[in-house]
Design a protein that fits this description.
Helix content: 40-55%
Structural class: alpha/beta
CATH topology of the largest domain: Rossmann fold
Number of strands: 8
Distance between the termini: 60 Å
Shape: globular
Largest sheet: 8 strands, mixed
Amino acid sequence: MGDRLKGKVAVVTGAGRGIGRAEALALAAEGARLVVNDMGGAADGSGSSQTPAAEVCGEIANMGGEAVPNYDSVATPEGGENIIKTAIDSFGRIDILVNNAGILRDRMLFNMTEEEWDMVMKVHLYGTFHCTRPASVYMRQQRWGRIINTSSISGLGNMGQANYSAAKEGIVGFTRTVALDLGKYGVTCNAIRPNAATRMTVTPELKEAMRKKASTMGVTSDDEFEKFFNQMFASKPEHIPPIVVYLASEESGFINGRTFFINGSQIGFYQEPMIIATINKDDGLWSLEELIKTVPEKLCKGVVNPAPPQPK
């Protein structure tokens, strides 16, 4: 075991399986003491089991580390409070928070129910807030902390995931503002967009959506599609922890409010959104006729509809 995080206490939500489990093990391997949070539910959030979190704690103990399980839901304020309270009660502090817990309720927008929208928002976006708020109180007081939030490339747009995309992109905006709120207290907040194949991401619904997307790109055979799919999801859970552990370390203090992409061995650093073209009118308001002429020629020259109308 290493000692880069010796003396630090970390909380990882959704740490019973997949990416969260890999992150918890990697943080423990660098000397952090862990709260392993996981309800043990299915990918859609249904059911519960204490086994996954308990098993990860056992793995950490076998490594010579220290870890305690927590089975609360991030979807409620009480759950988030209790997750952080577990760290304080067990180890006396909270230094690192990795917001990883998530569920999927994939559905095309026109078929999506309000309950499917709400549940994904509650776990991903609300859950990130529910855990970060109580953790920030302690981090601000001790004037040190590392918060790593989990977004997704789906936030940039993905068929059949309007709820998930909205929640994940909301997390990026949340990350930027938390960085500004807490930076002066020695606390950083960053986000990752992992592109990993896990039991949650590789669902039948997602595969079908990807198959439709691939067909528009000329990918038709099953063999071609499997190659396309594997290229799109090059990461395994073990590819994600190195950048997370780095962002949790002392050495990463100069990075705050930023977002990283992980796909296999590739780690990308996102440029923040910026205006790339403008049009100005000095003599008053734009008329509709002027915009109809000017926007295609100057403001949005070369822009192509990514989902053009298809024949019935």
